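Before a colleague's protein record goes any further, I have to sign it off. I want your independent view on whether this chain really folds as the tokens say. The record follows directly below this note.
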Amino acid sequence: MGLLAVGTPLAWPEAKQKADHVRQWGIEQLLAIWRRAKGKERDALLWGDEIEYLVVAYDDKHRKVKLSLRQADILEALAKDEDLCKQGGCVPDLQIVAKKGDTLPVFHPEFGRFMLEATPGKPWGIGFKDLLDVEPNMKWRRAIAKDHMEPNEYPITLTTFPRLGAKDHSLIPDFPPSGDKLRSQFLPDEIANPHIRFPTLAANIRSRRGRKVEINVPVFKDQRTPVPFKDPTVNYDLHKWPEDDDVRNGAAKDDHIYMDAMAFGMGSCCLQITFQAKNITEGRRLYDQLSPLGPIMLALTAATPIYKGFLADTDVRWNQISRAVDDRTLEELGEKPLKNDRWQIPKSRYASNSTYISQDPRLRKEYMDPGLVVDQDLKQRLMDGGMDALLATHFAHLFIRDPLVIFAEDLEELDLNRTDHFENLQSTNWQHMRFKPPPHDKDTGWRVEFRSMEIQITDFENAAFAIFIVLITRAILSFDLNFYIPIVRTTENMETAHVRNAVLDQKFYFRKNPFPSRPSKSNVTNETSGSTTPAQASRPTTPVGPIEDEYALMTIDEIINGQANGFPGLIPLVESYLNSVNVDVETRCGLARYLDLIQKRASGRLWTGAKWIRDFVRGHADYQQDSVVSQGICYDLVKAVSDITQNEGKNGGVGEEMFHIGRVTRPIGTAHA
């Protein structure tokens, strides 16, 4: 969740006039952070996860399920229950027991009034036993949240609600669509968190671009899907707002599911992991090396095959959120000649990374984005203030955007002990990696946030992916791994990750040899091929030769599990790292459960959430092979999801609970026998 400040927000025409003011003050605040924190050393190696929930309300009598807009009530109930498990205890009836002394999790508001975000009460340490506490803590968070809801409500971890924006409405309480802020045909303004930041953000994105956001997702074409498919929920005769002309001007494309509001993107849930590095050098290194993994983990966690009551022909959420907050004008999109705007901008402000920032000698200029847009004046100011050109380029690229929410009170005086103007831009650049400077008033170090993963149905799965990424960072640092590929290839990979069943059917660009170019004292064993490969070098050298020789197209299975005579595989690299450190047998066996899930998901032995959901719908007795996810199907699907999470771990199963709806009878994520 972004910056939550209080004040008098400026409407877009006035905010536009103050944009340069905010950018310049933001750069000065960044330089103040830089001067204060650039030399911070030996910060603890900590990390944290963020889980986002959809709060659903069941009407079992009528077999309906809707999104509950009671976020504020639930958060208030949580806040009032200050003594909950303070000294260790349990949530009634759910048998999720906290260890004595556990710190209570923290619950946060999110964009949608039907959403909750939960984080651990304190950061996780780097100890291996800490990793085994992640899953119980996630279960505890869900149990605490449920215990503060109505009996018919439940916190599920689906990426999107299957019928959000459908004609029969999917909210409780219900409100009519087409309010002043969103001006959506399908969703009411009341769907957004009432904090002034959120409706202002939505309204200013719409005002800045000069029309509503335009989200078109390819529909999945089944046997009886109309050809061409014309979204039947679109009203072409609506004349309430000027933006209602959008659909008459071609905004809704044939063979696509059409959506028109920020809430369709920012109402999505995800799993995000933040790492604190020991210093800025390590943070910059992790930012770069994790960046090429973003699309891989997006495809591996795919869980979004339904939008607005229709099966989509894509599996992940990323581009839909990107379009939901895309504030670019027609000039910035290149659809009109530049006249009023400064430059054409290739990507939405919610997009894959466009920069590398590490001062690693292995970083070649050929890896950089040739189309990168940078505010050269702001870059020069950062360099004049002592920042190196590489990092200055990164922030000067982020600052090509306009600040979207400006509070009048914040323009009265520049306070270099605050970060509000800097965060105004930083927090509304939603890239798949985020480099986070230390806040001024906290003993916090340089951090890196990994943002691409989809939320998973079960706590076991979410814990597995969180733990896997943590172990990857340890392997990167321990073995000095090099995953650099050209940024344009990572951008292509992000698009590939959207393809239906990309985890099995597509190939992704990935570096062939991740090891340092010089031999070292220790070796890492490629457990796939059995060969021994250099693992660590104190002074890596700059690669030479054509960059095209450094990477190749690989399947997700090859990237995760390795090739017989090529890339060693991320799981074998993690296993080799665990072999190199002192891990007790019990902990190692516990970690193996999570790594096994990753291996099987990559190989296809376990399905992605997207494939399981799609199969559930297509196998439902009510499904008409026409791509429509009816209210009854939606009810059974969401009910099955909540049943799985409530029964998770019972009868010896972990994350693979059996259930029966219609003809579907198999473990979650598993293929047909």
About this structure: Residues 87-97, 519-537, 651-673 have pLDDT under 50 and may be disordered. Residues 459-479 form the longest helix (21 residues). The CA atoms of residues 607 and 669 lie 4 Å apart.
